[in-house]
């Protein structure tokens, strides 16, 4: 039952407000965060817990993924010239969302502002991503957040390490940012934690939030040099100290279901 985790959290915490699950493959938790933002903006909730969890390590699921011929036999190497597929991961990530006024009233520790989000669908192929859908989602996130291209310092990429995803996402970033793409830092943390499916968007949102808070951009591990069609600054192999004023976190799911979250540092 996909909603079992949501029910259990509500029972354990004794929450009586809106509680539901979102299912959109590896964009699920990013979509859940977007829905939580809408609940708060609409006055349906003052505080929301949003995130995702996934545990795909069962024999049947692993064999199904193997049949797709997109799993790496060794390492995840996003954007690298020797990448050979994704590596599945298990995990969970949850964030606490609330209005700035509510957070200040309770003297909460604020890590960053979730400034906006963008959602889209490729309406194309179930496994072949389209740069157009990614472009629509990124532009929608920027517009919703009121952020200019020049204000974005970092993009936490979907970056699966597959031959199809990485150049497609690179092309989409270039299409959105134009000349500004040259100064961006872009990295995929999936090389570190694996592709945690429904939890990926939340894990990567947390990584992006910490990059803003700490002024440290996480690296793209296992990088041996840029692959064909991958020509951005991917923060290869070592974290980089850098002030991040605003960032995007990309989640592009199977079936072309896209969610992009925009974050901003609160000065």
**Can you tell me the number of structural domains?**
1
Beta-strand level of the residues, as a percent range?
A: 15-25%
- Top CATH class: Alpha Beta
Low-confidence parts lasting 5 or more residues at pLDDT below 50?
Answer: none
Gyration radius, rounded? 18 Å
**What is the number of helices?**
8
Distance between the termini: 42 Å
Give the strand order of the largest sheet, numbering strands 1, 2, ... along the chain: 3-9-8-4-5
Q: Based on DSSP secondary structure assignment, what is the total number of beta strands?
A: 9
Give the SSE string: HHEHEHEHEHEHHEEEE
What's the CATH architecture?
3-Layer(aba) Sandwich
CATH fold descriptor: Peroxisomal Thiolase, Chain A, domain 1
Mean pLDDT: 95
Structural class by SSE content: alpha/beta
What's the story with the biggest beta sheet? 5 strands, mixed
Shape: globular
User: CATH superfamily, please?
Assistant: Thiolase/Chalcone synthase
Helix content: 25-40%
Structure commentary:
With 267 residues, this protein is of the alpha/beta class. The protein has a single domain, classed as Peroxisomal Thiolase, Chain A, domain 1 (3-Layer(aba) Sandwich), CATH 3.40.47.10. Helices cover 32% and strands 19% of the residues. The chain has eight helices and nine strands. It has a five-stranded mixed beta sheet. A two-stranded antiparallel ribbon has the order 1-2. A hairpin with a 3-residue loop joins strand 8 and strand 9. Helix 2 crosses helix 8 and helix 5 packs across helix 6. The longest helix is centred in the middle third of the chain and has 15 residues. The model has no long low-confidence stretch (mean pLDDT 95).
């Amino acid at each position: 039952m996909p909603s079992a985790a949501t029910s259990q959290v509500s029972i354990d915490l004794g929450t009586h407000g809106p509680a539901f699950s979102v299912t959109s493959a590896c964009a699920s938790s990013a979509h859940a965060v977007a829905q939580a933002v809408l609940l708060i903006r609409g006055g349906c909730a003052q505080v929301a817990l949003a995130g995702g969890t996934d545990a795909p390590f069962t024999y049947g699921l692993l064999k199904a993924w193997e049949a797709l011929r997109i799993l790496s036999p060794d390492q995840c190497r996003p954007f690298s010239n020797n990448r050979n597929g994704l590596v599945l991961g298990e995990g969970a990530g949850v964030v606490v969302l609330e209005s700035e006024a509510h957070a200040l009233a309770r003297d909460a520790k604020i890590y960053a502002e979730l400034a906006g989000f963008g959602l889209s669908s490729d309406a194309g192929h179930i496994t072949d991503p389209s740069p157009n859908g990614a472009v629509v989602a990124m532009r929608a996130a920027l517009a919703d957040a009121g952020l200019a291209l020049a204000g974005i310092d970092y993009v936490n990429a979907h970056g699966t390490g597959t031959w199809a995803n990485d150049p497609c996402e690179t092309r989409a970033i270039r299409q959105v940012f134009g000349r500004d793409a040259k100064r961006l830092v872009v990295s995929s943390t999936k090389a570190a934690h694996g592709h945690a499916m429904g939890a990926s968007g939340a894990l990567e949102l947390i990584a992006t939030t910490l990059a803003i808070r700490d002024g440290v951009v996480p690296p793209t591990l296992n990088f041996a040099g840029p692959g064909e069609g991958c020509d951005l600054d991917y923060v290869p192999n070592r974290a980089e100290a850098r002030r991040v004023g605003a960032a995007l976190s990309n989640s592009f799911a199977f079936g072309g279901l896209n969610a992009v979250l925009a974050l901003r540092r609160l000065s």
